[in-house]
Design brief:
The chain has 1238 residues and is α/β, with parallel strands linked by helices. The protein is built from 43 helices and 32 strands.
């Protein structure tokens, strides 16, 4: 199970490395401070020496690089700084002028260059600011209607593009020595004469496929051969060296693929090492993300001990001081070198992925961070590591990579002989500092010099700009004369000694500390790169598999098989009979009174206990998910965490909801959960119902009954009355037919197919009392749109995770990728290569990427779809790639992931639930057509956008009718409370799961709601209805796009006109409704979440809504709901009786005077009501009180389920709106400048 290789540490030092991975930061800092060997007096001398260096550096301001100057003027957290970073990251790699020009326009016009004119002491910066301001003005002419200005913009844009492109190349050249190794050797000659040595780094992204691996490998071979030929008489210390990135040599370089990586990468790396040995030059393995450290150490040790590499002193490793394991890694390297009496070069760096490490730990819900959260702690770690290295120079060659004058002074304080070690700096960084050091001939400094084509260096360029430009960066502050020298000389040891709190960054578990009061905890996760956790996890899962699974009750009549291995019986359950269903319903109804009367705080405590139980039994639940649902380990862990998050989020949400509103529970709630999220959705529905005071009949999916059964057992262990939650097991339709029509069921929550959702809705509507909330989530035809500005490697990663991971069996999984024509072939080549590297196997193996399909029926549907596409192969569909399935998988429900190209989206008339991605090409000027195709498919769940064009991302996010939008990231894995999840149209009813409005559907007001006594007239006038509807649709197309304040202005005027016509009292109620709705939608809701993400909920209009009046309702209330609906961006058709004709005419007169656009509000005789609300374009009906007849008519419609909104219910205004969650990876293009600048 999981892995077969023994993963226990082979030495006590390796075990200490494991123990330090995510150790408690204060404890590690205490150990570090105890290891510091610098006295207070010595640290004072360090400060004095460093001060001398800084003064000298500032005297040579004229030697500042272009980038230094730019970032000093344009802060990375400013619009101007972000614009420059964005252009640097993307402009050079955009293949088409169309989008390149749009990027210029987006970035330059979003900044205020004018404000920088004259603000710098440097003429070149003022001239640059002026030039950028002029360029922005010209680019803005593009929007002018005057022909001459548009012509000027058209003529000048290509020139501005060429100038900016050249400028970025100049910036790039600041950090890159040359595009080729031979050019680098030539460029380094003058620098070598000044006393510097060189280590060359061949730049490039991590490999995604075999072709990448081969290309990067050949780059290294060519570089070593060239270096070797130029340095025949030098040794590894005095001669040049090469730096190797292991993730460039293996596309699956991660701990989950440990055995494969070790087997394939070591021989490859050995070839490079033997070549370096042949020429007697050094080869250093670069440091990468913390999750890869243990794997790097395993590979390093294997090669270091290889007899073929004996007597070569050039093998080295980079160590990151910001990792909590750094000092112990140094101890291990020293022990390895001493034990084998061979030299190791150790490049000590502070670390380059700090902001990402913080984000990943928060996303994973780890107990702590693998890196220090304060700069002072990293600095002290660096000093302790440096001392250890200096003390081990008999077998260690220390290489101190730093640009910090205080750190350099500290090294020299420890040893100023310069013997047996060297400093290192990045090309074009720290030059003035080290020019001073090298004046003393005994010191050595090596330049770390990146080499590569501009297209390969963009990620590196951004990292360097971040390092230079961050407010906390020494490199940035040292050239900023407004920063006092004393502030650059802070003693990190003293800073740590005098503080009990080292950072403002909350622990991952406390990520949501500002969300509620009291706050909720982030669900606890596991770092699979932590061997301690992995070994413990394996032991627990193995124990579960041998003790709990395969239990077969004597009366069981449903056997559960492992979808990965059909011969394996996971367990068996008892299917509910007609009698047991009735008994459980009675028990739930009987328990309702006591449970609903329990104080909300007590109910929340029970639900919190459920969360704790799930966490305490995490490993058992993971084992069940793997065996019963065919989920991989990572998916299974995520599922448990999501379930825990649901409990805690709804618990906090309910306390707030009941404190602020006069509401009560509804009664017995039926929850129907799916097999694809048998734990998370099951628990999410159940916990929402419980916390609001309802009792629950929880219908589990047949395929995953064991998971549901175990969850309910854990719930009972909290002490909850067993009658409060009743589990139902069996086929969906028989149970549904028994319960859905039953008057005792007071709400239904459902996740599943559109067809089933429509049947449930119709069945509920046909009940005598049909005022029954129905929450449905029904899947989608989810698309990702990728334009030519996107970073292709990241796109491929996100297509793999969104479309193929989880075997494509998520509601949110990617089904269709729209890819811009200019990058399609490159994208296909890269994606095919990445697909070829996927491991399709039994999910009980740690290295499995994709497991089985859930059952034979689901597998048959996928094969039928492939047959359908094959039938259209000549004109509409083409198979691009299909992954290989091993013959050993024939005993399970496996399906090979496939990539198809199709012409149009309308070829797909239903959701394809599995690992099939369809590709559609589009041209840059065809975005409107892409939007139209997606909107016309009828679904509206998730959308992915990959673009560096803010205008394009905003346009797509605003105009495509979906519930969840993901920008520059994958489009799966919505986090509770962070990315509330749910669709619209055919994809669901709302409200969003894990959002602030979900619980509102499960409660009712204290006062009884009476049914409206309205007999629907069935008179028809087809032409009249079509005319009214078409006019409403036309009006909506412009009305909902008006900015909010414009709508407020018009409707405020309408209220004023109503006051004159119908009286102040009536108008006052309208104004109150206007203000309440404005408060709801004036700003998007920004949600808590990990650093480097922006998660917001926007509210959008439903479309055409029909407002129904009633004699019991006052005119004030009637007009108030119309005003609220209009402000939300809806257009309104108001059905009124013939007797209200005079009032209608008065209101229409007020409308004309107010300036409200024509047909935004229309009146129609209510004798046409039935025909009107049957129309497919009507998206909601608003009534003063629930009406059973209207409910039945709406349920008879085909297509999306639309709501009947009655205004005497709580939260009715919220139902006038559609929620849209937009989640943006703000670090995708330019890194986390905000975090780095803290």
């Amino acid at each position: 199970m999981l892995f077969s290789k023994d993963m226990t540490a082979d030495t006590p030092l390796r075990q200490r490395i494991c123990d330090r991975y995510i150790a408690d930061e204060p404890s590690v800092i205490t150990e570090l401070l105890a290891d510091v060997r610098l006295s207070a007096g010595e640290r004072a001398e360090i400060a004095q020496r460093a001060s001398t260096y800084i003064v000298a550096i500032r005297k040579q301001q004229t030697r500042k690089t272009t980038v230094d100057v730019l970032l000093n003027e344009y802060s990375l957290t400013s619009n101007e700084g972000r614009a420059l970073m964005s252009l640097a990251e993307a402009l050079l790699r955009i293949p088409d002028k169309y989008n390149a020009h749009r990027l210029l326009q987006d970035m330059l016009t979003a900044a205020d260059w004018q404000s920088h004119i004259g603000q710098s002491r440097l003429i070149r910066i003022n001239l640059l600011s002026r030039a950028l301001a002029v360029a922005t003005t010209i680019l803005n002419y593009h929007h002018e209607t005057i022909g001459l200005k548009r012509f000027i913009s058209w003529c000048m844009t290509p020139i501005i593009y060429k100038v900016v492109r050249y400028f970025i190349q100049v910036m790039a050249n600041q950090f890159v020595l040359s595009q080729t190794i031979s050019g680098a050797l030539l460029a380094s000659e003058t620098i070598i004469k000044r006393g510097y040595r060189f280590s060359y780094d061949m730049l490039g992204e991590s490999a995604r496929c075999k072709q990448d691996e081969q290309r990067f490998f050949q780059h290294y071979v060519d570089a070593i051969n060239t270096l070797g030929a130029s340095s025949l008489e030098q040794d590894p210390i005095s001669g040049p060296g090469i730096s190797v990135k292991l993730s460039a040599l293996h596309s699956r370089y991660c701990v989950l693929q440990h055995e494969r990586v070790v087997a394939e990468l070591i021989p490859r790396l050995k070839q490079l090492a033997l070549l370096a040995k042949k020429y007697n030059i050094s080869l250093t393995i670069d440091a990468e993300e913390s999750a890869r450290l243990e794997l790097s150490l395993d590979i390093f040790k294997a090669l270091f001990l290889d007899d073929d590499l004996a007597h070569w002193q050039g093998f080295g490793l980079a160590v990151q001081a910001y990792q909590k394991r750094a000092t112990v890694v140094i101890d291990w390297l020293v022990d390895l070198a001493v034990s084998n009496k061979r030299q190791i070069s150790v490049r000590l760096v502070k670390g380059a992925y700090w902001d990402s490490e913080i984000k990943w730990a928060q996303q994973k819900g780890l107990a702590d961070y693998p890196v220090f959260t304060s700069k002072a702690a990293t600095d002290v770690s660096y000093l302790v590591c440096a001392q250890k290295l200096l003390n081990a120079r008999a077998y260690i060659y220390p290489q101190f990579a730093t640009h910090n004058a205080y750190t350099v002074a500290s090294i020299l304080q420890m040893d100023d002989s310069g013997q047996g070690y060297e400093f290192q700096r990045l090309h074009q960084m720290g030059q003035v500092l080290y020019d001073q050091i090298l004046k003393k001939k005994q010191f050595n400094c090596r330049v770390y010099a990146p080499i590569g084509k501009h297209i390969d260096l963009l990620a590196y360029l951004i990292r360097r700009m971040l390092e230079n430009g961050a407010n906390s960066s020494f490199v940035n502050n040292i050239v900023d004369t407004t920063v006092a020298i004393d502030s650059l000389l802070d003693d990190p040891v003293m800073k740590l000694q005098g503080s009990s709190s080292y950072s403002d960054i909350p622990l991952p578990r406390d990520l949501y500390q500002n969300e509620f009061s009291p706050p909720r905890l982030n669900a606890r996760g596991v770092e699979l790169a932590d061997k301690n956790e992995l070994i413990k996890l394996k032991a627990e899962i193995t124990s579960v598999l041998t003790t709990r699974l395969n239990y077969l009750p004597p009366t069981a009549n449903l056997t559960i098989h492992n979808p990965a291995n059909l011969q394996e019986i996971v367990g068996a359950v008892i299917v509910d009979s007609e009698r047991s269903i009735e008994q459980k319903l009675q028990q739930a109804q009987h328990a309702f009174l006591s449970w609903s009367n329990m104080a909300i705080t007590q109910r929340c405590q029970f639900v919190d206990l459920i969360a704790d139980k799930l966490e305490d039994n995490r490993d058992e639940l993971i084992a069940l998910c793997i065996k019963e649902a065919g989920k991989t380990l990572t998916d299974s862990m995520a599922e448990v965490r999501e379930a825990v998050d649901f409990c805690r989020y709804y618990s906090r949400q309910a306390e707030q909801l009941f404190a602020d509103n006069a509401i009560v529970a509804r009664g017995v709630v039926l929850s129907i959960s799916p097999w694809n999220f048998p734990l998370a959705i099951f628990v999410g529905q159940l916990s929402a119902a419980l916390v609001t005071g309802n009792t629950v009949l929880a219908k589990a999916a047949e395929q995953t009954s064991l998971i549901a059964q175990r969850i309910v057992e854990l719930i009972y262990q909290t002490g909850l009355d067993k009658n409060t939650v009743q589990l139902l097991i069996g086929a969906g339709m028989p149970i549904g037919k028994r319960l859905i029509p039953d008057e005792r069921i007071q709400a239904v929550m459902f996740t599943g197919s559109c067809e089933t959702a429509l049947w449930i809705n119709q069945t509920l509507a046909n009940r005598k009392k049909n005022n029954i909330p129905f929450i449905a989530e029904t899947g989608g035809q989810n698309a990702m749109i990728v334009d030519s500005t996107a970073q292709l490697e990241h796109v491929v990663d996100d297509v793999i995770s969104s479309g193929f991971n989880s075997a494509g069996q998520r509601c949110s999984s990617l089904r269709v990728v729209f890819i811009q024509q200019e990058i399609t072939e490159s994208f296909i080549a890269l994606l095919k290569g990445a697909m070829a590297e996927l491991t399709i196997a039994d999910p009980q193996n740690l290295d499995t990427d994709i497991g089985p399909i859930i059952d034979q029926q689901a597998l048959d549907r996928l094969n039928q779809h492939c047959d359908f596409l094959y039938d259209h192969r000549l004109d509409k569909a083409k198979l691009i790639y299909s992954c290989h399935l091993n013959n050993s998988l024939s005993g399970g429900h496996y399906f090979a992931p496939r990539l198809y190209e199709i012409k149009e989206l309308d070829l797909l008339n239903k959701e394809v639930f599995g690992p099939i991605v369809h590709l559609i090409r589009f041209k840059a000027d065809e975005l409107d057509n892409v939007v139209s195709q997606i909107n016309q498919c009828g679904y509206g769940l998730t959308l992915g956008i990959h673009s560096r064009l803010t205008s394009v991302a905003d346009y797509l996010a605003n105009n495509i009718n979906v519930g969840n939008v993901y920008i520059n990231r994958n489009m799966v894995g919505a986090v509770v409370g962070v990315q509330p999840f749910g669709g619209r149209a055919l994809s669901g009813t709302g409200p969003k799961a894990g959002g602030k409005h979900y619980l509102e559907a499960l409660v009712k007001p204290h006062n009884q709601i009476f049914n409206m006594r309205l007999t629907l007239a069935s008179q028809t006038n087809e032409l009249l209805n079509i005319s009214v509807i078409n006019q409403a649709k036309t009006a909506w197309s412009s009305w909902h796009k008006q900015d909010l304040e414009s709508r407020v202005m018009v409707l405020t005027q309408l209220c004023s006109e109503i006051a004159e016509t119908l009286g102040e009292t009536l108008a006052k109620d309208c104004v109150n409704a206007l203000e309440l709705m404005h408060l709801k939608i004036s700003q998007p809701n920004q949600l808590a979440g990990p650093t480097g993400e922006l998660n917001q909920v926007y509210y959008e209009s439903r479309g055409v809504v029909v407002v129904v009046g009633d004699k019991q309702q006052t005119l004030n209330a009637h007009l108030s709901c119309i005003i609220a609906a209009l402000l939300a961006g809806n257009v309104v058709i108001c059905a009124m009786a013939e007797t209200d004709k005079t009032v209608m005419e008065q209101i229409e007169n007020s409308i004309r005077k107010s300036g409200l656009p024509r047909k935004t509000l229309q009146f129609l005789n209510d004798r046409y009501m039935t025909q009107l609300i049957k129309h497919a374009s009507v998206s909601a009906v608003i009534s003063p009180i629930h009406n059973e007849q209207i409910k039945r008519v709406l349920a008879q419609r085909c297509g999306p389920i639309i709501p009947l909104i009655y205004t005497n219910a709580p939260f009715w205004m919220n139902r006038l709106l559609l929620e849209k969650t937009v989640s943006t990876d703000t670090t995708a293009a330019i890194g986390n400048a905000l975090l780095l600048s803290q």
